[in-house]
Amino acid sequence: MPRKGLSLAPRLRYLAGRARRIDVGSVLERAKEVSQTHGKWTPAVVVDMLWSAGFRQVGFQDYVDYDFAILSKAERATYMTHPVSNELSQKYDHPDYRHIFQDKVEFDRVFSDHLEREWMVVDAGNADAVREFTQRQGTIVTKEPVGQAGTGVHRYRAAEIEDWDAFHRGLLERGELLIEEVIRQHPDIAAVCPGTVNTTRVTAFFDGQKTHILAMAQKFGRGAVSDQMTFGGFYTMLDDAGHAVGPGYDSHGHVHESHPDTGFRIADFQLPMVDEVKAFVDRVARVVPQVQYVGWDIVVTPDGPVLVEGNWGAGVYENKPSVTGIRTGHKPRYREAIGF
Ligand SMILES: Nc1ncnc2c1ncn2[C@@H]1O[C@H](COP(=O)(O)OP(=O)(O)O)[C@@H](O)[C@H]1O
Ligand SMILES: [Mg+2]
């Protein structure tokens, strides 16, 4: 441990303060996982994880996901992490406007020009409208508007619904108040996983004049309604030209050279219409300029990009060194664009 700067005692006190708020079991679990993967001594990993969390703003899951155990100090410093991302969200996403992003109904209202699909809100008196919408669409996606952290998205087929009043009542009871038309994705994306609409996550910062693209990742589902990890999804980072930089991975230790359901080689993926995607992000970033730091979920369709949602708490998508061989992250881009 370096001895310059703060003396050891205050540092340890600070660390202990943080330690009181952490789930020791989850740290140990993760440390064991790291030591197995990288052949490191578990106690040393625990100490390094705690030290990195306390003094370098590295979340425990960041440490695992981005293989910090095998990175040098300089390499680690290039990685964006969740605690730093959270600070940016707090600083650059104005509290008075976050609700637009937090509530999916509110979001669809404000961003309706960029959705390119039909949507409606379920209320106590509109069973007939819900039936009409669903039968006309054939399949629908429903969403619980607030705070479901990746689990509040569902899919229904009209052909499987027998009792329409019960269906409508069920949506109300379960809080699935937003109904959307199913997005039709570009054939190049459907080629990897046709059963899920696979989104591109573009993390961007709008500085009041210019929109900076900080990182792009492509998520892939496993045939379920959502491409989120809670539904078995995974991702790969994309380069500036929208090409995958390597195989896919998730936060549960899975690595996918190829998509398990189609065999499509993830490293061969090229996002279609990349220039259109960047121009699109620039347009949507200006709709609510008070929320400057956003993780945009976008789908490229045959007619161009459409918006799924914007996340004001953007989260982090980064390179995984053990999978891609790339040992640097995107933090320098964040620093340059945002100036921290
Ligand atoms: N209208 C839609 N049509 C098809 N798939 C959708 C639609 N909306 C969302 N999805 C799928 O569900 C995923 C999660 O939706 P999203 O609105 O981003 O909610 P959250 O990320 O909060 O769970 C998307 O990434 C996409 O895979
Ligand atoms: Mg999303």
Gist of the model:
With 340 residues, this protein is α+β, with helices and mostly antiparallel strands. 37% of the residues lie in helices and 18% in strands.
CATH level-3 fold name of the largest domain: D-amino Acid Aminotransferase, Chain A, domain 1
Q: What's the CATH C level of the largest domain?
A: Alpha Beta
Hetero compounds? adenosine-5'-diphosphate, magnesium ion
Question: Could you say what the CATH architecture of the largest domain is?
Answer: 2-Layer Sandwich
The largest pleated sheet is described as:
5 strands, antiparallel
Query: Which regions are unreliable across 5 or more consecutive residues at pLDDT < 50?
Result: 1-5
Distance between the termini: 25 Å
SS-based class = alpha+beta
**Given the structure, what is the number of helices?**
14
Give the integer mean of the pLDDT values. 95
Number of domains: 3
The radius of gyration over CA amounts to: 21 Å
Spatial order of the strands forming the largest sheet:
7-6-5-10-11
Number of strands: 11
User: In CATH, what is the homologous superfamily of the largest domain?
Assistant: ATP-grasp fold, B domain
Helix content: 25-40%
Please trace the helix and strand order, writing H or E for each element: HHHHHHHHEHEEHEHEEEEEHEEHH
Proportion in β-strands: 15-25%
Which descriptor suits the 3D outline? globular
